[in-house]
Amino acid sequence: MSIGRIFTRILPVTLLSLPLTGCSGGPSGSRVLTAEGPLHLEEHLDAATVGGSEVPAEAIEPIVWDFGEPQPEWKTFEHFNPAIPALMLEHTDEALRVRFDERHADPRASRLHGDIYVDLPDLARDEWSHVLVRARTSGDIRTIGIGFNLNDPASAVDPDLGPGKFYGDQTPLVTDGTVQTYSLRADRHQSAGEWEGPWRQLIFFMDVGEPSSIDILSVTLIPKATVYADAPAGVREVVLGNRYRRAIYTHTPGRLEYQARVPDGGRLDVGLGLLRKDISVTFRISATTQAGERETLLEQNIVNPSGWQQRSVDLADYTGREITLALETEAERAGSVAFWGAPTVSGARTVARKPNVIFYVIDGGAADFMSVYGYNRRTTPNIERLAAEGAVFEWAYSNSSWTRPSTASFMTSLQNSVMGDFLNWNDPVPEEAVTMAEHMHRAAYHTAVFTANPNAGTLSNLQRGVDLFREDWEDFSYLGGNNHRESSLFLHEGFWEWREAYPAQPYWAHFQTTDVHEDFPAVSPFAGRFVGPAEREQWREWNERLDEVDNHGIYSEAWDSTGISRTAFFSLHQGLYDETMAHNDYQIGRLVERLKAEGEWENTLLIIGGDHSTRAAMDDMVVLLDSLPPRWGHPMFRPTISRVPLIFVWPGHIQGGQRFDQAVSMIDVLPTLLDLVGLPPAEVAQGQSLAPLLRGEQGWDPRPVILDEFEVDRETGELRGVIEVVDGQWGASLEINPRPPDELEDWQRPRPARLLLYDLWNDPFCVTSVHEERPDLVEKYTEFLEAQWAAHQSLAQLFTGSAEGTALTPEQLQTLRTLGYIR
């Protein structure tokens, strides 16, 4: 066993963090803070006086097993069934290889099964947060999970319980041969019995569908206090109970003092949190006047909390006065870590000088299937009414074909290739790329994100600059699985909870709902609106039959073998999609109604957009055309992949009823938002502001829309992908570093030419490339896109990708599967 520090960016999800933004400042009174808008105390830690808060001298170190060297202490079990042999362990140059064959079949289930374990030096489990596993697998290894402490001899226990006394997290695995890091909670278990005594063994159990192997490169045990041992006090993004807060951490006993001038009707809103539930901490907030009069405003003892404890402190008695605001913590155990989550001083609830902003992204929202864009089914009546109050862009494109690269791009106004492309399922946005949330937070906005897709959240490092970040996909499990079709309902409820806790304005809120992301059927009363019960049952029966045979992409052989009509299947599929769109539209209508009732609508800028169109990964809706496009034809600018809604509504500031037919991009949203609300433009942005169009100003020049999507070739390290342009009548798609034909999968086909060219006016679904008929345009757009690609590579040098991958949690992996991103 080797012990040492892990890489600082590979952090457990419940301790996800950013670098320290400030530490103790000068003497008390060196700077008086004012709260003309929301005052984020965590942003002014450099102005605070920090007292106490000493880092414990003997911090617990991570425990690391690096299988680049043999680790003989890792063992396998004799199976409870003597007919099943123990797993086969092999030490390669870089990994512990665990092999399964037919002999490991479990007679009670259609799977292979096995366990490995390692002895531990009697650890106190409450001190440990996560088990990180770096592994690579291919084949049908379905899950890996952890257990704790060996059971009594098998003769004395029910064999169904397996070798462990307690079992914890388990996670699906990515089986494409890439190295991934998986995060499994060490501080919870799912067994019926109560935990007693020390942690003596760590067990890994694996379920496998067919003979396969898994290479385990490293295993790391993360102490809860590791990421807080670098400074007495600092600022981190901290998650408790699945709620991320931008928080100040201190070590007990600790004291923070701020000199602040209290605004009219002042209040302090803050979440209180603990790193360890088993330690009692007292939180205290006090105010001291310049005359030396001290008043304790809050004193709260917290032990065994369930997430954040939200508190509000009334400062109205100190309106207009300068006070010393003290935040203190005490505990019997010195050095305990305590959190002050999003501590914010604000004034009376009055109309802010700047507008509130709601950026509402319908994940998988297809403009083609929204009645506000002329679709023949009434799927979006509420958005139609909103459009009459604002401006609609008829041809808005996402920057990529799926959520991860697209969301990262419109949140930063940077193309996918500029930020470092796509390598694994846990590639974050580089910290050098300033996100929309960070821009708004720096401008004294309250900031919050409500998402049902981890690709739009922590997997992409997009929790930065966010006062409250809710990834509510985990909360839907009690509804019978990840019920994404109701995500808008629960995300809106979370928004109003946040507004109650932090009522000051202005605020910026980002929604990313997954109602339309293929979790069919829609909820009542929308189920049945376009597909009757008998038709829905027919679709379900077809879907199950197709799944038994093969995946049912448009080119699958399953259609012929089952005799199921592609057109009939996807016609019903489209109706089911339309019903979920109608549900999301209804919830948007309810959200706006309440904004009006709360008196916030007149000062709110609402932006409705999308991250990609429907069925982006397989593009199945083109099956409804008379003929299928060639298998190699899949330009991202095909409308069923990337045409998305883009609508701006701001009462009294954006004229209603406007519709623009210029091609624009979701990458234009960030520059437009900063322009509209009067904030400085981003230092680096590839999009352009649409505000001149929205304001009716002259001189706005359209530019071609660029889309790009890349991945790293794992053998050569070079980027492979496509860069595309929409330029008036023409769409061109240029392949960069194309793979040789013999390296393509069975379902892939080589392109007939490096650049494909489409006449978007006469062939809007991009069925037939006209590159042979128009060599002049091929030359023009090849030269243009190669120059764009070179510019992207040059710009990428500003973004070093210093943020290494985060770990994938079981819930995130399951959600990625549910949403169809991985299999």
Describe the structure.
The protein has 823 residues and is of the alpha+beta class. It has 12 helices and 38 strands. The protein has a 15-stranded mixed β-sheet that branches. Strands 1, 5, 7, 8, 11, 14 and 16 form a 7-stranded antiparallel β-sheet that branches. Strands 2, 4, 19, 21, 22 and 24 form a 6-stranded mixed β-sheet that branches. Strand 17 (233-240) and strand 18 form a beta hairpin. Helix 5 (533-549) crosses helix 7 (566-597). The model is unreliable at 1-29, 474-481, 616-620 and 819-823 (pLDDT under 50).
Helices and strands, with pairings:
Elements: E1 2-3, E2 32-34, E3 39-40, E4 49-52, E5 63-66, E6 75-76, E7 88-91, E8 96-99, E9 105-106, E10 111-123, E11 128-138, E12 141-150, E13 164-172, E14 176-185, E15 199-208, E16 213-223, E17 233-240, E18 243-251, E19 254-261, E20 267-274, E21 281-289, E22 294-302, E23 309-314, E24 322-331, E25 337-346, E26 356-362, H1 381-389, E27 391-397, H2 403-412, H3 436-442, E28 446-451, E29 468-471, H4 487-501, E30 507-513, H5 533-549, H6 558-562, H7 566-597, E31 604-610, H8 639-642, E32 643-644, E33 647-649, E34 658-665, H9 669-676, H10 691-695, E35 705-712, E36 719-727, E37 730-736, E38 755-759, H11 775-795, H12 810-818
Parallel strand pairs: 2-19, 26-30, 26-31, 27-34, 28-29, 28-30
Antiparallel strand pairs: 1-5, 3-25, 4-19, 5-16, 6-10, 7-8, 8-16, 9-10, 10-15, 11-14, 11-16, 12-13, 12-15, 17-18, 18-25, 18-29, 19-24, 20-23, 20-25, 21-22, 21-24, 27-32, 27-33, 31-33, 35-36, 36-37, 37-38
Helix pairs in contact: 5-7
